[in-house]
Amino acid sequence: MEKPRILKNGIAIMGLVIILLYIIMIIVSSFWLPFDPSEMDVKHVLESPSFGTGHFFGTDEFGRDVLSRIMKGSSVSLIISISATALGAVFGIMMGIWAGFLGGRWDNFIMRIADIMFSFPSLLMAIFVMAVLGENTYNVIIAIGIIYIPQFARISRGAILSLKSNEFIRAARSNGAGNIYILFRHLLPNSMPPIIVQVSLSLSVAILLESSLSFLGLGVQPPEPSWGNMLSSARKVMMIAPWTAIYPGLAIITLVLGFNLLGDGLRDILDPRLRNVS
Amino acid sequence: MVNTDILLDVQNLKVHFPIEKGIIFKRNAGWIRAVDGVSFSIRKGESLGLVGESGCGKSTTAMTVAQLQASTAGKVFFEGRDLSLITPKELRRERMNFQIVFQDPYSSLNPRMRAGDIIAEPLRIYARKKIISISKKEVLEKTASLMDRCGLPSSSADRYPHEFSGGQRQRIGIARALSLGPKMIIADEPVSALDVSIQSQILNLLKDLQQELDLTFLFIAHDLAVVEYFCSRIAVMYLGHIVETADSKTLYNQPIHPYTRALFSAVPLSDPRSARKRKRIILEGDVPSPSVVRAGCPFMDRCPDVMERCKVETPTLSNLDKNHQVACFLYDSPGKER
Fold it and tell me: For residue A43, with 0-12 CB atoms within 10 Å meaning exposed, 13-18 middle and 19 or more buried, which class applies?
């Protein structure tokens, strides 16, 4: 059995390793944490990182262990980012291929709806959705997913449109292929590279959006930790206890970087034209 | 080889494309008359070449004959059946009999499918639709034999299209077109995207296949040398009309229609002495827009022999002799039958 292609791509491996580390962290955090992330400890408020006390990343303004909170928050962040992207991708791609494949009036109708959704700044749109639905973790997923729908719709429509005029589509038609067959066998596989890149970007942007929403107090609600609301509460004590802001920030940066690297690598891997090139 | 049975009969075919204006509320601002009343027929085993300059409607004609483009008017009979009247299910069955070889070997193959799968795809589709019954093993055998027949190494079935050269990719396209055992091949400029040296290989392959499998060809081209080599009969198109049709020898030696004469006088000759002797007919002006409706001969504003009559009436194809038809008033003397 030949080596999977993903292992030949350095960039993808780096991204994959980062994401795997986070996944391991989530698994570990589900049954073991250094400290209880919501237990307050007034004797050890704003303690700087040290090995002696066991608070490797220090403690926050309530004496809660920052490392434990980051670990607990990682599962929230990752779940939100993956589900929101999946939500946006499924509905967006459905809309996009429908618009691109049918063309004409349907195309116009669907894409104008997407344009209307696009015309709101994404954070504003998320705030709006959160205000309507109420503040909880599931609604964060829905809010971010809604932001993603027009993006995926536009990308998949563009890909379908550019592929539709290819002669191999005509060839398939002259070989008796039906619409559904052409869509799934010829159009979708060939439109995957831009969609996959969009997925990886969306995963990372979702983490940022979730953090932004939580930072603004609209996302994950305290005391449940998320990287965003950790940053938000760190704002007040950032000058005297910088570790409360630096470590959640680092967590966001590295996970975003991991998704972006994986996306870049996947784009190269999925393009058969770049295969077997020595 | 040639028998009198007519395989394909095209009658007064018209394909008009709407010109749409407006962004949201589209209104029709006119029609592009890409094909405007084309009639021809092809006998079994014959190869008809359809020539003309870019934009004269020859590819549109081919795609309409192949039922990949809806016609505005006119009829296409394949083996006596009107293809516009049959149900989609019957059409799918009928498609097995006419297959297409496309012009661009790069965009006509799905870059994500392996060569073997591309060639086997038609068989698999028809097997899945239960129109033909063929086992998986037979599909592989058939694919291998097709690849072998088209000059592709059998080891290349697992390779992707980008790993092949242009000529090899066109061979894949030909193998795909043959996989369902068609009676007619519609070749839409099959060699115009290839190098000259590769062109002759592909043409010879097609010619061999024609003899072996008793294929009928509708061959679209703009290269007259290619058409003369390959086709037994040639139809010359101009602005959506057929202006002259004859067997290729006749047409090559005695083109009659002013447009055909100009076209053939532009073919480069290999012998410089005869090239110097030959009088080149240089046409003035441009092809008029196919969206303008007007009376008269389509060629009237560029024709060196234009007459008053040409501006009022449209000439129809009339028999010059049994194998030679021309649409021109210069040869439309009252004594000849029409």
Answer: exposed
The answer to whether the CB atoms of A276 and B103 lie below 8 A apart is no
CB A107 within 8 A of CB A64: no
Q: How many CB atoms lie within 10 A of CB A70?
A: 23
pLDDT in tens, B87-119: 888 999 899 999 999 988 888 999 889 999 999
pLDDT of residue A276: 53
B160/A170 CB distance under 8 A: no
- Cβ A130 vs Cβ A190: under 8 Å: no
Interface A–B counts its CB contacts (< 8 A) at 64
CA distance A158 to chain B (A): 17
Question: The pTM is what?
Answer: 0.81
pLDDT digits (tens, 9 = 90+) for A182-229: 998 899 888 888 888 889 889 888 988 988 888 888 888 877 888 888
Residues with Cβ within 8 Å of residue B235, at least 6 apart in sequence? B40, B48, B49, B50, B51, B242, B244, B245
Average pLDDT, chain A: 85
Contacts of A176 in chain B (CB under 8 A): 92, 95-96, 122, 125-126, 129, 131
Return phi, psi of residue B104, to 5°.
-95, 110
Span B290-328, pLDDT tens digits: 887 778 888 888 888 888 888 888 888 888 888 888 888
Query: Cβ–Cβ of A170/B104 closer than 8 Å?
Result: no
Domain boundaries, chain A: 66-257
Contact A175 B122 (CB under 8 A): yes
Instruction: Name the residue in chain A with its Cα closest to that of B114.
Output: A272
- Specify which residues B187 forms β-bridges with: B101, B219
**Chain-chain contact of A175 with B109 (C-beta, under 8 angstroms):** no
Q: How far is A196 from chain B (nearest CA, A)?
A: 16
- Is-cis flag, bond preceding A272, omega within 30? no
Residue A81 has pLDDT above 60, yes or no: yes
Q: What is d(CA B152, CA B146) in angstroms, rounded to the nearest whole number? A: 9
> Considering the domain A66-257 in this protein, what is its CATH number?
1.10.3720.10
Does B193 lie at the interface with A, CB-CB under 8 angstroms?
no
Stretch 95-154 of chain B: residues touching chain A, C-beta under 8 Å: 95-96, 99-100, 102-104, 107-112, 121-122, 125-126, 129, 131
Residue among B174, B189, B164, B83 nearest B122 (CA)? B174
- Contact status of A235 with chain B (Cβ, < 8 Å): no
